[in-house]
Amino acid sequence: MFSDNKKPRTMNEIGAQPNRISKHTKIKGDIESEADFRIDGKLDGNVKTTGKVVIGKDGYIHGKVECVNADIEGSFNGELLVSDLLSLKSSAVIEGTVSVTKLAVEPVGATFNASCTMKGKGGSQNSSSSSFKSSLSSSNRNNEPAKAS
């Protein structure tokens, strides 16, 4: 009951419904939530959640995003802080700065023009400036997440 367990709670554990910004919606401002968030529209602002952020194929965020996990199919420009897994789909376009623990990139099409910091299990950080477009020649064909050493 009074444990110090700071593990993020999943949406089902807190009983919340996922939040959604639909395709033809534009929002300017900051959002804070304990539930998952899906953006299919446009957001000019910041998102902070203890859940997962999904940017759909038509979605776009310009600002700062802080979350546990993220799946990106659309576009992002700003600061992206993901405490666990960032998954980039083939249509993703990322610009700005990124901080993650694990990174998974689909082998065809994703564009990643960002300064990236990867945190290892012990809190150590590996930093690099990256710019790539994934292609069929990707060495990670099993869609396994990249891990910081």
Mean pLDDT: 81
Give the helix proportion (percent range).
under 10%
Give the helix tally.
1
Strand tally: 16
Class based on secondary structure composition and strand pairing: mainly beta
H-E order: HEEEEEEEEEEEEEEEE
The amount of beta strand, in percent, is over 45%
Low-confidence stretches: 134-149
- Give the termini distance in whole angstroms: 35 Å
What would you note in describing this structure?
The protein has one helix and 16 strands. Strand 14 and strand 15 (125-133) form a beta hairpin. By secondary structure, the chain is mainly beta. Strands 2, 3, 5, 6, 8, 10, 12, 14 and 15 form a nine-stranded mixed sheet that branches. The chain has a seven-stranded mixed sheet with strand order 1-4-7-9-11-13-16, with no helix packed on it. The protein has one helix spanning 11-14; strands at residues 19-21, 26-28, 31-33, 37-39, 42-44, 47-49, 52-55, 60-67, 69-72, 75-82, 85-88, 93-100, 102-105, 111-119, 125-133, 146-147.
Note the topology:
Layout: H1 11-14, E1 19-21, E2 26-28, E3 31-33, E4 37-39, E5 42-44, E6 47-49, E7 52-55, E8 60-67, E9 69-72, E10 75-82, E11 85-88, E12 93-100, E13 102-105, E14 111-119, E15 125-133, E16 146-147
Parallel strand pairs: 1-4, 2-5, 3-6, 4-7, 5-8, 6-8, 7-9, 8-10, 9-11, 10-12, 11-13, 12-14
Antiparallel strand pairs: 13-16, 14-15
Question: How would you describe this structure in keywords?
Answer:
mainly beta; single chain; 149 residues; disordered C terminus
In short:
This protein is mainly beta and 149 residues long. It has one helix and 16 strands. Strands 2, 3, 5, 6, 8, 10, 12, 14 and 15 form a nine-stranded mixed β-sheet that branches. Strands 1-4-7-9-11-13-16 form a seven-stranded mixed β-sheet, with no helix packed on it.
